[in-house]
Amino acid sequence: MNNYEDSVRTDLLFWHKKMSSAPSFTDRLSKRVQDKINGYIPEKVHKAITVTMEKLFKAVLFGAEYTTGRKMTNGTLVYREAYVRNQISFYQKTASLEGAVTGAGGLLMGLADFPVLIGLKMKLLFDIASLYGFDVKDYRERLYILYVFQLAFSSQQRRNAVYQHILGWNEFARTLPEKAEDFDWRSFQQEYRDYIDLAKMAQLVPVIGAAVGAIANYKLVAQLGETAMNCYRLRLVGHLISDINQNPYPLNE
């Protein structure tokens, strides 16, 4: 094992502990409050939002493959990740600029930021998958991208469940629906909406909207990039972290 792979293994162990940790009191309280708020929203509104989000994600999910470069078929891990980090940095800057512009434009432009940011995030995930050598034309690879997205932007309780699917992806992938229509879009969009509501609502406030939009988008893309890197590391260099399966909490000893 070289020094870089040793560093990756250490990073993955810390990240594993973070992804599999139990929800804190704050996490549980926040989730209960958000669930209560969602309970006040009429069912027809939930359905309308679900349909809108489903169409938006499908459009990006099944369209980004045509604007994504061919998968990288060779190269060391350090070589691949140099390109991955460069892409993350590019999308951070792009999303930050977009957030600043829409945040400065008031309510209507602030609302327009939502689908644009989703498009940027999904395109980043397609690029990262290709750089790690995975074929995004494969339907199940695109579903994997959705689970990576969920993992990055979910409550800790939901994150625990999604992470188990990521860890056992090869087996879990066999149980996935054959059609995108059968995916659980309701849970997917609600978790994402709940997660980013606070940060994005502040973007609609006059005067501070531009600054909030720039910072929020920058951090959200950074979080997604980190999550994606570790998810693909698990699949690419899983042999480096065999002790995760032997001891789920290796850092607690």
TrEMBL record:
InterPro entries: EcsC. It comes from the Bacteria. It holds the Pfam family EcsC. This is ABC transporter-associated protein EcsC. The lineage of its organism: Bacteria, Pseudomonadati, Bacteroidota, Sphingobacteriia, Sphingobacteriales.
